Amino acid sequence: MNVWIESVCSEGWEKEVIDYFKKKKIWDKVIYKKYPIYQYSVFLFEEEIKKTSSINYMPSDMYENIYKHIFVFMDLYSRNSPLSQDSYSLRNTHDFMELFNLEVNYIYTQFKENQIDLYIIQRSPHLGIDYLRCIVAKEMGIRTLILEQSLTPNRFFYYWDYYDYGYFKTSRPLFEKEKVTIKKEYKKEWFYTRPQKTPLKKRIKSYILPSVSFRRMCRLSNFQCLLYNHLLYRRYKTNAKKYISKDVDLSAKFIYFAMHLQPEKTTSTWGGVYNDQLLAIERLSSIIPEDWYIYVKDNPAQGFFMRGEWFYKRLSLIPKVKVVSSDTNTFMLTEKSQFVSTITGTVGWEAITGGKCVLYFGWGTWYKTFPGAFEYSDNIDVNAIASYHIDHQEVEDRMSELLTKMGYGVIYEEYYEMVENFSEEQNAKDIIHSFEKILDVK
C-alpha cells in the first residue's frame, strides 16, 4: 500500500507511525509532506510547482467535477498572504484561476506517479491546497482518512468522507465505551482562549528557524501588501466601533448569534454557503417573531479580514439586529437568550451542555446529532426551539457513544497541553494503536 501523509504544525508522531507500519510491511512507499512553517506552506508548494518541468493533465470529466470547487478554493486560498494568515495578498481573480489549474493537475500528477492508495490528512482541509488534495483524491478513487483533534483531551475524530464530519457515519465504533460526566453549565474554559505562554526553549528556537527569516523577508519585500492591509485595518477599527448598539436590553427576547473568527475552517469549509455569516443572520432575521431581536457579537480576536466597509453596511440593514461589544460576556448572553445561534461554533456546545438549545447553520458541526442542536431551515419553528427541554443525561449518553468512534492520541500539537503529563513517546504509541484499529490491520 502506498500512502501519502500530510501534516501541518505537528511533529512527534508521524515518523513513528510511518516507521511502525513500514516495518510491519503494511505500508510500502510513504510520501510524507510536512509544513512546519504553517501559513507559508502554500508558498513552499508553489515553489515545488515552479521547479517542475512536466505535468499530467487529468481527464476532462474529472476536471469538470473538480472545477465546481473553484470558488471554495479561491476563498480558502485568499487567506494565504506573505504577511500572515489573516491578511490579504494582492492576487486577482485570474491569478487564482491559474493557480487552481496548475495545482489540481500537479496534485493529480503526484498521486498518479506515486500510485497512492491511501491519503491521510491530519486535520480538516482549509488552506486551499489541502482542500484540492482531498477532492482530487476522491475523484481518483483514493481512500482518504481525515483526522480532527477534538476538545476531549487525548481523543481525535476520524472519518472517511469529507462531508461526514458531524454525522461520523463512516467512523466505526472501534473503541471502548466510557461513562461520561459533563457539568451542566454554560461556562467552560478552553485552552486556546487563555493567554499563551511559550516555553523559553521554543521561543529561542523560533528565532533561529529559517521560517522567521522567510517571514521577515516576505514582509519587507511586500510593501504594497503591507500598505493595503494597513488601510483595511484602519477602516475596520472605525466601522467595528461605529455599529455597536447602545440600547442592548438583556431582559428583551433575543437570540444570541456568536460570530466566528475568520478566516477559519469552522466557517470557510464547514460553514458551506454560511461562510458568509451575514447570510445566516439575514435568514434568521426573517423567521423570528416581531418582538424578538438578534444580538450579534463578533469574536474578540477578529481582525479586518472579511470585515470590510460593505460587510458593516449590509449588517446594519438587517432588521432586528443589535451588535453588542465583542467584550460582552458570552456566557451571560447565552444564559439570557431564548437560544443561541452559530455556524458551527463551540458556543453551541456550551449552550446544550448548560441546558439551552442551539440553531446551527453549517454542515460541519460536530455536535449536530446531540439533543438540543437544531439545523436551520426556512420553516423551522423558533418558538419550539426556545421551549425545547434538553435531557442532560441524553447529552452525556450521546457523548459516551461518540467516544467509541474517536481514536486515542493528540494528532495536532496545539492540543498537547490538554493532556496531563503529556509524553510524545506515549502519544505515538496511542496513535499507532488507534491506527491499527481504524485501518483494520495488526
Which strands sit side by side, in order, in the main sheet?
Answer: 2-1-3-4-5-12
Our count of helices gives: 17
- The count of domains is 2
Q: Round the Cα radius of gyration to an integer and report it.
A: 23 Å
The average pLDDT value, as a whole number, equals 90
Report the end-to-end length measured between terminal Cα atoms: 14 Å
Beta-strand content bin = 5-15%
**What is the element string, with H for helices and E for strands?**
EHEHHHHEHEEHHHEHHEHEHEHEEHHEH
Structural classification = alpha/beta
Based on DSSP secondary structure assignment, what is the total number of beta strands? 12
For the biggest sheet, the summary is: 6 strands, mixed
Low-confidence stretches: none
Describe the protein's architecture and organization.
With 442 residues, the protein is an alpha/beta fold. The protein has 2 domains: 209 residues, no CATH class; 199 residues, Glycogen Phosphorylase B (Rossmann fold, 3-Layer(aba) Sandwich). 40% of the residues lie in helices and 13% in strands. A 6-stranded mixed β-sheet has the order 2-1-3-4-5-12, with helices on both faces. A 6-stranded parallel β-sheet has the order 8-7-6-9-10-11, with helices on both faces. A hairpin with a 5-residue loop joins strand 4 and strand 5. The longest helix is centred in the N-terminal third of the chain and has 21 residues. The chain is globular, with a radius of gyration of 23 Å.
